[in-house]
Amino acid sequence: MSANGVPPAVPAIGWRAYVPASVRPYTESAPLAALFLGISSGAPYALISATLTTRLAQDGINKRAVTAFTLAFLVYNLKWLWAWIVDGVRLPIIGRLGQRVSWLLLAGVLAAASIVNLALVDPKASLTATAVAAILVAVAGATYDIVIDAYRIESLEPRQLGVGSGMSQYGWRIGSVTAAALALVIAARGGWQLAYIACAAFAIPAMVVGLLFGEPARHRAVSARKGAAAVLDSIASPLVEFFNRRGALLVLLFVLLHKIGDTLANLTFRLLFNDQQYSNDEIAFYDVGFGFWAYLAGVFLGGMLYTRLGMKRSVLLSLVLMGVSNLSFAGLASLGHSNWGLAGAIGFENLASGIGGVTVTAYFSALCDLRYTAAQYALISAAASVVGRVLTGTSAGALIEMLGYVNFYLLTTVLAVPAIVLFWLMMRAGFVDASIGTAATDPAAPATPSNRTPRSDRGS
Asked: Count of CB atoms within 10 A of residue 280's CB?
């Protein structure tokens, strides 16, 4: 990254010299791998968020119980507690494939199995069994995310963090939207069991990436640990390193606050759609037909803004856009059932989310120290939406019933303001620059036994 915070241009070598400069970075192998990693990351999340919300609402479960199910997402916010295991524990037998590859395979199988298990429960027969199944999907999905995020960051060169984050966001949205839409369409014709079983296949792409590309070039293996003291050190070291940085507490506060309004709003959209009597086909069509393509456009714009404006200014702009986007759903709630209103609200929200997904994810990736990639990114990503998820699970349904949808979405817009002001103050004080870790500065390390498992040695 250059002194002014703008990533250097990608060299025009070989056939890429004929590709438009704005598209060229997306054609490199590491960003392309990030695309498929994102697909597997997005599907489990979608199946226990919007899709499960729709399933429960259609089964006649009341709003308070439906929004309480979003507490299952708190598992994602606790994933930093076991992320050190993914960094330091070598799996038997398949561990010969490499630390990241072997964990990709294990976590992928667990994610697929948990989704099938969720398919087999009946919410009308037992809400408790459904809640347990949703939590199991969250545990497996969160573990998969730990490995996927570490693999992505360690595969990308510092100059690729922006575009790699963009491709990961492309993949995440492809996986989440396609899984959610496919589930809706199949459920309308063959039932929810068949829908969820079919969507378990979305766990496969990340496993294929690991098998094809092998261990990431910048992976730094954690030395073997023995004894309780070493285990405690492996948990504490990533935290100590992060909090020793200048302004670390303010950075963590920003991470906690920046998605409160966005998370609180996003996890209630399907309740609004259900109350406005949109059909499964209408939701699937407009979410994919407008929201999906608007998100893709937003991701591309986010990559351009990150390159031209630099990390700090692009993040600040994206925070403003994401906050304002909640107003579009206040407008939709006021308008009532309108397909064009739905398309416009979903389109603007997804455009803003796409831009923010690139810039903010790139910043959070840059915060990591390569010695503790899995643990630190798990901490950062878990903290990013914990406050919004707690508020959603404990009070969103009650707030909607008390305030109505219009005032509720106006409230979520106001809740976005503190994070915008805080990041602006952090920029002025130099804390954004001071918080950057080695993931944004260190180049790819040469392949050695300590940081990479050579292809010729795997399975021998």
From this structure: 18
pLDDT in tens, 415-460: 889 999 999 999 988 888 888 888 877 766 544 433 433 333 333 2
User: Could you report the per-residue pLDDT of 44-69, keeping only the tens digit for each?
Assistant: 888 887 677 777 777 666 666 666 66
Q: Which two tokens stand for residue 279?
A: 């059909």
- Alpha-carbon distance of 410 to 20, in angstroms, equals 41
Domain count, the chain: 1
- The gap between the terminal CA atoms of the chain, to the nearest Å, is 39
Domain annotation covers residue 226? no
How far apart CA 58 and CA 213 sit, in angstroms, is 42
pLDDT exceeds 90 at position 204 = yes
Is 9 part of a structural domain of the chain?
Answer: no
Task: Determine whether 78 is exposed, middle or buried from the number of CB atoms within 10 Å of its CB (0-12, 13-18, 19+).
Answer: middle
Distances (CA, A) of 104 to 100, 143, 205: 6, 9, 10
Other CB atoms within 10 Å distance of the CB of residue 181:
23
Q: Give the mean pLDDT of the chain.
A: 81
Cα separation, 187 vs 201, in Å, equals 16
Tokens at 181, concatenated: 């839409």
Specify if 5 maps to a domain.
no
| Domain, as residue range, for 408 | 28-221+233-455
Question: Domain holding 450: CATH number?
Answer: 1.20.1250.20
The answer to whether position 190 is within a domain reads: yes
The reported pLDDT for the residue numbered 80 is 83
- Residue 273 CA to residue 161 CA, distance in Å, equals 36
Q: What are 93-109's pLDDT values in tens digits?
A: 898 898 899 999 999 99
